[in-house]
Amino acid sequence: MRCVACGAEMHLVHVAGDDTMMVRGYEHHTFECSGCPEVERRLTFTRAGRSATGRIVQIGHGTHEAQYAAKDTKSGLVVMRNQDRQRLRELCEWMGWRVVDGRVLDANDRTQVSNEAGALSDDLRSAQVSSPANE
Fold first, then answer.
1. Three-state DSSP class for 6?
2. DSSP assignment of 9-78, as one string?
3. What is the pLDDT of residues 67-97, one digit of tens each?
4. Contact criterion met (CB below 8 Å) for 28 and 42
5. CA angle 119–125–128, rounded 5-degree value
6. How far apart are CA 111 and CA 107, in angstroms?
């Protein structure tokens, strides 16, 4: 995906499930631009849904020298390590885990994203209620 403002590549940095919809598979995706400070949030529908574990990991430098670590974004626990970043990403994807780029959001960021997601869900519900098809 490209940034509307500058045309640079946007990176997926956070995924949050949406349990407010009647059907499963809706997620809130947060993208950050690699070239400017632009941030985009989108409500998406993923037909395949999540893996059985539902684990979302972020890859960064581990505590050991010259190692990368895959950290669970929900619990903060390191779930896998490898010396090669790309190989670690491949292993995580093979396990069915979703890998997001960027920093892990702290509690304040998660609250803000959650509040924005709730407001977006409310907007969608009110749009569905007031649509001409319901009249």
1. coil
2. BEEEEEEEE--SSSSS-EEEEEEEESSSS-EEEEEEE-TT---SS--EEEEEE-SSTT-EEEEETTT--E
3. 888 898 888 888 888 888 888 888 888 788 8
4. yes
5. 145
6. 6
Rounded Cα distance, 73 and 108, in Å: 14
The residues with which 30 forms a beta bridge, in sequence order, are 14, 41
SS3 95: coil
Kindly state the tokens that stand for 62.
């581990």
CA distance 72 to 105: 11
Q: Position of tokens 């998406």?
A: 44
Helix (H, G, I), strand (E, B) or coil at 131: coil
How far, in Å, are 21, 106, 133, 134 from residue 130 at the CA level?
17, 36, 8, 7
* Its pTM surpasses 0.70: no
> Is residue 101 within a helix (H) or strand (E), and if so which, with residue range?
none
The full set of domain ranges for the chain reads 1-49, 53-104
Structure tokens at 121: 């869900």
Residue owning tokens 């940095």: 13
